[in-house]
Amino acid sequence: xxxxxxxxxxxxxxxxxxxxxxxxxxxxxxxxxxxxxxxxxxxxxxxxxxxxxxxxxxxxxxxxxxxxxxxxxxxxxxxxxxxxxxxxxxxxxxxxxxxxxxxxxxxxxxxxxxxxxxxxxxxxxxxxxxxxxxxxxxxxxxxxxxxxxxxxxxxxxxxxxxxxxxxxxxxxxxxxxxxxxxxxxxxxxxxxxxxxxxxxxxxxxxxxxxxxxxxxxxxxxxxxxxxxxxxxxxxxxxxxxxxxxxxxxxxxxxxxxxxxxxxxxxxxxxxxxxxxxxxxxxxxxxxxxxxxxxxxxxxxxxxxxxxxxxxxxxxxxxxxxxxxxxxxxxxxxxxxxxxxxxxxxxxxxxxxxxxxxxxxxxxxxxxxxxxxxx
Amino acid sequence: xxxxxxxxxxxxxxxxxxxxxxxxxxxxxxxxxxxxxxxxxxxxxxxxxxxxxxxxxxxxxxxxxxxx
Lengths: 374, 68
Known about the structure:
The complex is a heterodimer of chains A (374) and B (68).
Chain A: E1 3-7, H1 11-22, E2 28-33, H2 48-51, H3 64-69, E3 72-76, E4 80-84, E5 89-92, E6 95-98, E7 101-104, E8 108-110, H4 124-131, E9 139-143, H5 147-158, E10 162-167, H6 174-177, H7 179-191, E11 195-198, E12 212-215, E13 219-221, E14 237-239, E15 244-246, E16 249-251, E17 256-260, E18 265-267, H8 272-287, E19 300-305, E20 308-314, E21 321-328, E22 333-340, E23 343-350, H9 354-365, H10 370-373
Parallel strand pairs in A: 1-2, 1-7, 2-3, 7-16, 9-10, 9-12, 10-11, 14-17
Antiparallel strand pairs in A: 4-5, 5-6, 8-13, 15-16, 17-18, 19-20, 20-23, 21-22, 22-23
Helix pairs in contact in A: 1-8
Chain B: E1 4-8, H1 18-22, E2 27-29, E3 36-38, H2 48-57, E4 63-67
Antiparallel strand pairs in B: 1-4, 2-3
């Protein structure tokens, strides 16, 4: 293998490049990035960057010296437009490029309302653009009370904005964390003066009574460039349990839908830590075709909302039941355990010491029986 | 022999605890807020590989290694 091409220069792509070098790959590593910046961190976009607490330079995931040490053939501001699996060639807006190994990490882009020009939050420019429009007396409407929308609402309140938060479901985040935890989070937002309007589906930003509108209704994988390539696309690049989409082709990060053998389900995970872990796994499996290892992580994400920090482990979305097994929702210091079938599949912790949470993460990794842990 | 020194940018830490999971002999977390604690900023050669892994997986890029 002489040339490995990594398409996508964010956390997953960076992790893939670093892992290739750490594992001793001495050939050419070409990194393609549509954005002109070197890899930067996205979670602070809806937190410290939007709050104005951090300068964008703090978001760089690696220093220039660390990037240099990777000896990359970096092509930023370059977009991939096509893939020919048979010819082992991708098409860039600058021309064709042959590869021996390919790692697809093209991420996602925000969904928008039809025909609207409102704010979204995915890039540094998005966050800075919204930041300069927020301040005391400004009114912000946030469409979608998922984690991104909820975090942005919290930051905007901290900046003195009036905030109205729209959510089509009866309880925000219920599909992700369950109704009781979702209700608790709704109460927290209302206590902080957010005008939360649940059961409301916003189809157009025009009718909203606000100075600025942030649309945070989820995202869609950047896979159009793979249409006609023969790779299976189904809300992401479909991969096996090794994160392989085809021989010599792997996918990682937000764009990858793979079979997580720990839960026995296909999942696509837009979490920060998954981007790194899957980028690493994809690079290792690509380099060692005869010693591949299934990618079987316990997904993890955190979310900052006001003074609460949420840590969630596992596959919460498909849960059958939730139980508070430590602390209480009223105290906002608790651990919620999530059951699917007869197994523990997830845990969500707020305000608990890490030592109290780690055994739960381990139990999820061990596919523990629900009756054994509750 | 390679020496590794750990520089930890504490204000960037998001308390994910990935480092303490990957390299529990070198990193721990504070009880009250989960922020990482470096137990040994010049770990021995036996820890170098897991420390590199910890730096790589840190979701806040808060762990820097000075290798000499």
